[in-house]
Amino acid sequence: MKRIFDAAVSAILLVLFSPVLAVVAVLVKRELGSPVLFRQERTGRNGVNFHILKFRSMTNGTDAYGNLLPDQQRLTRFGLFLRKSSLDEFPQLFSVLKGDMSLVGPRPLLPRYVPYYTERERLRHTVRPGMTGLAQVSGRNALSWEERLELDVQYVENYSFRLDLKILLLTVKKVIGRDGTVAVPSSVMLDLDEERRDVSGVPY
Could you tell me the pTM of the whole model? Predict the structure, then answer.
Protein backbone atom coordinates (compact mmCIF):
# COMPACT_ATOMS: atom_id res chain seq x y z
CA MET A 1 0.00 0.00 0.00
CA LYS A 2 2.85 2.40 0.85
CA ARG A 3 4.58 1.84 -2.50
CA ILE A 4 1.32 2.27 -4.46
CA PHE A 5 0.59 5.48 -2.54
CA ASP A 6 4.12 6.80 -3.18
CA ALA A 7 3.96 6.10 -6.90
CA ALA A 8 0.49 7.58 -7.32
CA VAL A 9 1.11 10.74 -5.31
CA SER A 10 4.56 11.42 -6.81
CA ALA A 11 3.14 11.03 -10.35
CA ILE A 12 0.24 13.38 -9.58
CA LEU A 13 2.54 15.98 -7.99
CA LEU A 14 4.96 15.86 -10.91
CA VAL A 15 2.11 16.55 -13.32
CA LEU A 16 0.54 19.29 -11.18
CA PHE A 17 3.83 21.04 -10.47
CA SER A 18 5.43 20.54 -13.89
CA PRO A 19 4.99 24.26 -14.77
CA VAL A 20 6.67 25.24 -11.49
CA LEU A 21 9.50 22.78 -12.07
CA ALA A 22 10.01 24.13 -15.59
CA VAL A 23 10.16 27.73 -14.36
CA VAL A 24 12.58 26.84 -11.56
CA ALA A 25 14.79 24.95 -14.02
CA VAL A 26 14.95 27.99 -16.32
CA LEU A 27 15.77 30.29 -13.39
CA VAL A 28 18.48 27.96 -12.11
CA LYS A 29 20.01 27.86 -15.58
CA ARG A 30 19.93 31.67 -15.79
CA GLU A 31 21.10 32.44 -12.26
CA LEU A 32 23.54 29.60 -11.57
CA GLY A 33 24.34 28.05 -14.95
CA SER A 34 24.68 24.36 -15.73
CA PRO A 35 24.03 21.75 -14.56
CA VAL A 36 20.51 22.60 -13.45
CA LEU A 37 20.27 19.50 -11.24
CA PHE A 38 22.61 18.58 -8.40
CA ARG A 39 23.26 14.83 -8.36
CA GLN A 40 24.79 13.12 -5.32
CA GLU A 41 25.19 9.53 -4.15
CA ARG A 42 23.24 8.58 -1.03
CA THR A 43 22.61 5.32 0.84
CA GLY A 44 19.16 3.80 0.43
CA ARG A 45 17.18 0.72 1.43
CA ASN A 46 19.28 -2.32 2.41
CA GLY A 47 22.41 -0.18 2.18
CA VAL A 48 22.20 0.12 -1.62
CA ASN A 49 23.46 3.46 -2.93
CA PHE A 50 21.52 5.57 -5.41
CA HIS A 51 21.73 9.11 -6.77
CA ILE A 52 19.55 11.80 -5.28
CA LEU A 53 18.47 14.78 -7.40
CA LYS A 54 17.99 18.38 -6.29
CA PHE A 55 17.82 21.71 -8.06
CA ARG A 56 21.23 23.28 -7.94
CA SER A 57 21.44 26.06 -5.33
CA MET A 58 25.14 27.02 -5.28
CA THR A 59 27.68 28.40 -7.74
CA ASN A 60 30.91 26.64 -8.71
CA GLY A 61 33.04 29.42 -7.21
CA THR A 62 36.64 28.40 -6.44
CA ASP A 63 39.63 29.95 -4.71
CA ALA A 64 43.00 30.79 -6.30
CA TYR A 65 44.00 27.11 -6.08
CA GLY A 66 40.89 25.76 -7.80
CA ASN A 67 39.26 24.49 -4.61
CA LEU A 68 35.54 25.04 -4.14
CA LEU A 69 34.73 27.91 -1.82
CA PRO A 70 32.83 27.19 1.44
CA ASP A 71 29.10 26.60 0.99
CA GLN A 72 28.22 29.93 2.61
CA GLN A 73 30.18 31.80 -0.06
CA ARG A 74 28.69 29.84 -2.97
CA LEU A 75 25.07 30.10 -1.85
CA THR A 76 23.38 32.98 -3.70
CA ARG A 77 20.18 34.81 -2.72
CA PHE A 78 18.33 32.78 -5.32
CA GLY A 79 19.83 29.55 -3.99
CA LEU A 80 18.86 30.57 -0.48
CA PHE A 81 15.28 31.09 -1.66
CA LEU A 82 15.23 27.61 -3.22
CA ARG A 83 16.39 26.03 0.04
CA LYS A 84 14.14 28.06 2.33
CA SER A 85 11.10 27.25 0.17
CA SER A 86 12.21 23.59 -0.25
CA LEU A 87 11.78 23.95 -4.03
CA ASP A 88 15.26 22.48 -4.46
CA GLU A 89 13.91 19.17 -3.12
CA PHE A 90 11.15 18.69 -5.73
CA PRO A 91 13.24 16.65 -8.25
CA GLN A 92 13.34 13.89 -5.62
CA LEU A 93 9.79 13.08 -6.69
CA PHE A 94 11.39 11.31 -9.67
CA SER A 95 13.31 9.10 -7.20
CA VAL A 96 10.04 8.35 -5.38
CA LEU A 97 8.34 7.44 -8.65
CA LYS A 98 11.29 5.22 -9.60
CA GLY A 99 11.23 3.44 -6.24
CA ASP A 100 14.58 4.56 -4.83
CA MET A 101 12.81 6.74 -2.29
CA SER A 102 9.50 7.09 -0.49
CA LEU A 103 7.52 10.22 0.30
CA VAL A 104 8.11 9.52 4.00
CA GLY A 105 11.07 7.78 5.61
CA PRO A 106 14.50 8.45 7.08
CA ARG A 107 16.34 11.05 4.99
CA PRO A 108 19.01 9.44 2.76
CA LEU A 109 22.48 10.31 4.00
CA LEU A 110 25.99 10.16 2.55
CA PRO A 111 27.62 6.72 2.05
CA ARG A 112 30.67 7.84 4.02
CA TYR A 113 28.49 7.93 7.16
CA VAL A 114 27.75 4.19 7.07
CA PRO A 115 30.72 3.06 9.26
CA TYR A 116 29.67 5.51 11.95
CA TYR A 117 26.14 4.21 12.63
CA THR A 118 25.41 2.12 15.72
CA GLU A 119 23.72 -1.26 15.18
CA ARG A 120 20.39 0.25 16.21
CA GLU A 121 20.80 3.19 13.84
CA ARG A 122 21.39 0.81 10.92
CA LEU A 123 17.70 -0.09 11.14
CA ARG A 124 17.05 3.13 9.20
CA HIS A 125 18.23 1.28 6.09
CA THR A 126 15.55 -1.41 6.35
CA VAL A 127 13.04 0.95 4.68
CA ARG A 128 13.17 3.27 1.69
CA PRO A 129 14.56 6.73 2.52
CA GLY A 130 12.09 9.57 2.36
CA MET A 131 11.72 13.10 1.07
CA THR A 132 10.56 13.94 4.58
CA GLY A 133 10.51 12.03 7.82
CA LEU A 134 9.81 12.01 11.54
CA ALA A 135 13.08 13.81 12.30
CA GLN A 136 12.31 16.55 9.77
CA VAL A 137 8.98 17.41 11.40
CA SER A 138 10.39 17.10 14.92
CA GLY A 139 13.08 19.74 14.81
CA ARG A 140 15.12 19.20 11.65
CA ASN A 141 18.58 20.77 11.98
CA ALA A 142 17.87 21.91 15.53
CA LEU A 143 18.30 18.27 16.59
CA SER A 144 21.59 16.54 17.38
CA TRP A 145 22.69 13.61 15.22
CA GLU A 146 21.76 11.20 18.03
CA GLU A 147 18.25 12.65 18.22
CA ARG A 148 17.74 12.63 14.45
CA LEU A 149 18.94 9.05 14.01
CA GLU A 150 16.89 7.83 16.97
CA LEU A 151 13.76 9.38 15.44
CA ASP A 152 14.57 7.58 12.18
CA VAL A 153 14.64 4.27 14.05
CA GLN A 154 11.45 5.11 15.92
CA TYR A 155 9.77 5.71 12.56
CA VAL A 156 10.87 2.27 11.35
CA GLU A 157 9.64 0.61 14.55
CA ASN A 158 6.28 2.40 14.59
CA TYR A 159 5.47 2.72 10.90
CA SER A 160 1.84 2.99 9.89
CA PHE A 161 0.00 4.60 6.99
CA ARG A 162 -1.62 6.95 9.49
CA LEU A 163 1.83 8.06 10.72
CA ASP A 164 2.91 8.77 7.13
CA LEU A 165 -0.15 10.96 6.55
CA LYS A 166 0.52 12.84 9.79
CA ILE A 167 4.16 13.47 8.80
CA LEU A 168 3.12 14.65 5.32
CA LEU A 169 0.61 17.13 6.76
CA LEU A 170 3.17 18.43 9.27
CA THR A 171 5.71 18.75 6.45
CA VAL A 172 3.35 20.91 4.39
CA LYS A 173 2.77 23.11 7.44
CA LYS A 174 6.50 23.49 8.09
CA VAL A 175 7.34 24.17 4.44
CA ILE A 176 4.70 26.91 4.23
CA GLY A 177 5.94 28.41 7.50
CA ARG A 178 9.60 27.75 6.58
CA ASP A 179 9.97 26.38 10.09
CA GLY A 180 13.32 24.90 11.12
CA THR A 181 15.00 25.46 7.77
CA VAL A 182 18.77 25.95 7.88
CA ALA A 183 20.19 26.93 4.49
CA VAL A 184 23.70 25.66 5.27
CA PRO A 185 23.52 22.75 7.76
CA SER A 186 27.31 22.71 8.20
CA SER A 187 27.00 26.15 9.83
CA VAL A 188 25.14 24.70 12.82
CA MET A 189 26.46 21.13 13.09
CA LEU A 190 29.35 18.90 12.10
CA ASP A 191 28.99 16.13 9.53
CA LEU A 192 28.27 12.80 11.22
CA ASP A 193 31.64 11.28 10.35
CA GLU A 194 33.48 14.33 11.72
CA GLU A 195 31.50 14.27 14.94
CA ARG A 196 31.96 10.56 15.57
CA ARG A 197 35.54 10.12 14.44
CA ASP A 198 38.07 9.91 17.27
CA VAL A 199 41.56 11.40 17.08
CA SER A 200 42.92 8.28 15.36
CA GLY A 201 40.34 8.61 12.58
CA VAL A 202 38.50 5.44 13.62
CA PRO A 203 34.74 5.37 14.28
CA TYR A 204 34.04 5.15 18.00
Answer: 0.87
